[in-house]
Amino acid sequence: MSMKFDRPMNWKELPAGCLIDEAATSLRFKTGDWRSMRPVWNSEKCIHCLLCWISCPDSAIKVENEKITGIDYNYCKGCGICASICPPKASAIEMIREEK
Amino acid sequence: MKTVAKTGNEAMAYAMKQINPDVVAAYPITPATEVVQIFSNYVADGEVDTEFVAVESEHSALSACVGASIAGGRVMTSTSSQGLALMHEILYIAAGNRLPIVIALVNRSLSAPINIHCDHSDTMGSREAGWMHLYCANSQEAYDSLIIALKTAEATAVPAIVSTDAFILSHAMERLEVLEYSDVQNFIGEYKPRFSALDLENPKTYGPLDLQDYFFEHKRAQIDDFSKVLDAYDKAAKDYAELSGRYYPAVEEYKTEGAEVAIFAAGSTADTAKEVVDDLREQGRKVGLVRMRMWRPLPVEQIKATLGKFKAVAVMDRSDTMADFGGPVFLETRGMLYDSEEKPLITDYVYGLGGRNIELTDIARVYDDIEQVANTGKIEKLITYLGVRGEK
Ligand code: SF4
Ligand code: SF4
To answer: How far apart are CA B20 and CA B259, in angstroms?
Structure first.
């Protein structure tokens, strides 16, 4: 059975066992909606150690050719882990309040 | 088929050996310890292909079973009493995720006071968890039932608990017939799971968060799956009868023809009561016995049809609901019969808690009581605590 996401399914349409029977469905849920703090990345200060990338719980740090290219605000939930893991000498990520 | 002498625990371990599950994760507890102890010998001696996972608690045992079952394995475990209580949280998780795990269980009372002997309060306390429950009356049935339960569980994706009475069955040696390994294997067939976490071609998410928007739909679907268990059980039991010559209906009738009163009992007590029925029948008394074997799902129509024809029925409950209204079998039996046009007067006998022995004379007294209820059409005492000092 393939799951339908365009409308709420009734109980007879659900795959048995409470499972989600396809992969990567989390892409459809924009966890960035919750954010109250926003990480702002500074490309000048970044030394591309990738610590933020490996630590981000939502895979929201964008990387190309082993270099950080920015933050995906669709999925970044603003937890601040990237900013706190960033080496103090670089301090390339600053958390600011969303309303600013 | 060959004839052997085995205790209830040995019989269950032997059935597990012939089922040869992929994974068994277990933690020992009296009086079920032997089941996995014997089974671990089979593992050590290379007589089964099972991955045996020794864990640090029953909570972990069933959790490991859940993981193995999600991975697509045929999975079994064994426990009793406090062990089942510690598994309680995971019972719901296994059932909700449709994992057909089978538990070989020995019924033992729950603390406090601490006790290691038989009553049914452990499984009765887990009856809302979404598992099939079968209560066995002897070791032969325990052996047979594990095989039938596994087949039913895998056909419906509903997990199952098969239980025997602590010590009375678990440690008493009886004569029984066992099947050949190949017959058991042919009967249960190869396990084809509906899904497997090891199916890397089709990745899925197992056990995700499910809030106000979908939880109810998932539960409704689970209840619907549960409603198919009785038919699947019936089919498995009949197929098994063809193979073994032994048929186990969900509800068993014994000498009910022409009977005006009946005892409705489960487990070893039902077998004991058959002796009393034989005696009383010889005296010309119109008594019969109905044995409650399956208690989840409830075989509602069978119970209504069977019990509906008597004038009076005594329910024997080996646990209490602590509702100040008798035992669970009593409460649910009255509920099932409420809409029936013809229904018996029903009384309850809570007995045998913590392994208190039930004598033939105790059971004969219950028949005396319900004959009086049937004759007078009046219930003098609705709930009796049978065999406890300080009460008649
Ligand atoms: S704030 Fe949290 S979620 Fe957002 S990019 Fe940093 S680590 Fe990832
Ligand atoms: S942790 Fe800081 S320095 Fe390292 S890659 Fe991320 S932003 Fe750049």
So the answer is: 44
